[in-house]
């Protein structure tokens, strides 16, 4: 006999309820956000846009205002998201939240996905050549094996 539903979180039962997408202002991350927004709209899921503010120890040691620069990027991304939402109001409705973390992109996205109980993670393909040698954020997320990961070119 099957036990009744305990009310606990369960992945992959009725389609995604939370889709996490990593955004950093790059073209590939904005394509990933657009793709994830379409998924969220069709599934009636919450779209969680996540920007991970890099911690640049070398810049901080030289007195560069690193936090101020990354805060500006976060504010600019939020403004772009709000503007796109307003343009599409009444045509393309999607529930969304914006989150920002400090640290490296992999750990920030993994924390966001865990904290938000994400059913799926969407990221843009890396635009940096060196990642084929050391591994991109997307590859690390896939290897973690904790969520379905979609990589948008």
Automatic annotation (TrEMBL):
PANTHER family cross-referenced by the UniProt entry: STRESS RESPONSE PROTEIN NHAX, UNIVERSAL STRESS PROTEIN UP12
Species: Streptomyces thermocarboxydovorans
Protein family membership: Belongs to the universal stress protein A family.
Domain UspA: 17-153
InterPro entries cross-referenced by the UniProt entry: Rossmann-like_a/b/a_fold (IPR014729), Universal_stress_UspA (IPR006015), UspA (IPR006016)
Name this protein carries in UniProt: Universal stress protein
Gene3D superfamilies: HUPs
Pfam families linked: Usp
């Amino acid at each position: 006999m099957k036990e009744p539903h305990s009310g606990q979180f369960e992945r992959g039962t009725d389609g995604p309820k939370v889709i996490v997408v990593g955004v950093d202002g790059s073209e590939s991350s904005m394509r990933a956000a657009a793709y994830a927004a379409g998924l969220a709209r069709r599934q009636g899921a919450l779209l969680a846009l996540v920007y991970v503010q890099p911690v640049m120890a070398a810049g901080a040691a030289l007195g560069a205002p690193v936090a101020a620069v990354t805060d500006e990027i976060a504010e600019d991304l939020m403004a772009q998201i709000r503007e796109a939402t307003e343009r599409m109001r009444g045509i393309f409705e999607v529930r969304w939240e914006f989150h920002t973390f400090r640290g490296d992109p992999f750990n920030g996205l993994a924390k966001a996905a865990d904290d938000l109980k994400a059913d799926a993670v969407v990221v843009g393909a890396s635009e940096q050549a060196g990642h084929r040698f050391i591994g991109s954020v997307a590859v690390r997320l896939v290897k973690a094996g904790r969520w379905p990961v979609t990589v948008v070119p």
